[in-house]
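INTERNAL AUDIT FORM
Audit reference: QA-55
Scope: verify that the stored structure record matches its stored sequence.
Auditor: D.O.
Record contents follow.
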Amino acid sequence: MSRLFDRRWRVTIGTIEFTTLDCDFSVTKTIKPEPNTCEITVYNLNREHQAELEELRPRDKKATTGIPCRIEAGYADPGPQLIWLGDLRTIETTRDGPDWVTHATSGDGERGWQNGKIHVIYGPKTPIETALRAIARELGVAPGNLSKAVQKMKIAGAAMFPTGKVFSGSASRALLDFARSADLEVSIQDGALQFVDRGKALSGESLKLSSETGLIGSPTVDNEGVMTCNVLMIPDVRVGSVVVLDAARVKGAYRIEQATWTGATSGDEWGVELKGKRH
């Protein structure tokens, strides 16, 4: 815990990077397929940077990729960690008293999710991985853990289309239809596909949370079994992964189904709210 101090951040929009100007950000990620969202506010950019950002404003509403937005945040040790990578959605600079305020919004794979189209015909015994990689390309996202999902399907003997397959239309709809048929949950996380067995968690080591490792206050569990807790801006928080709580009133393993990172470089907010269900 002693190392979790001395905030660090880096906000990058396109090729323009900010590491010292005051900024606020709010990042919300869920395990659901709908694209994650982010809001960024940067204070008192100089006129040159304001003009450069205005030029980055998206103009092609049918594009599947856009100007990248990136947020890294954390502490001096171990250094800022990636908490957001998405496409610029909107950007605007206004005057608020003595300050210039630049507000940007971003979506993770949102443009490809809305606009991506796929039109292909696959013959009998085509590997499912071939189709999934084609869908990822049309969505403008990286394959992520696609290979691991396909490997599980191979073990189950269901890694190819026995009689062929036709895809025509929305790439996101094709992805959702496939995930549903394979009993998988799929989402886009930081520009890459993430597959999880329905109701299960990502493979890997669980994140241990206690007052000694970044847990703030007391977690709660509501009548529907949804756990809510707050932690410092610690690394390795991923939706779909497991956290193991060690608090006075709440103990045990929970799958993270939603995480909201909130930061204000000149204010008190600098942490993550987690929501999840018993694992």
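Auditor finding: record pair retrieved intact. Residues 116-186 form one domain.
Action required: none
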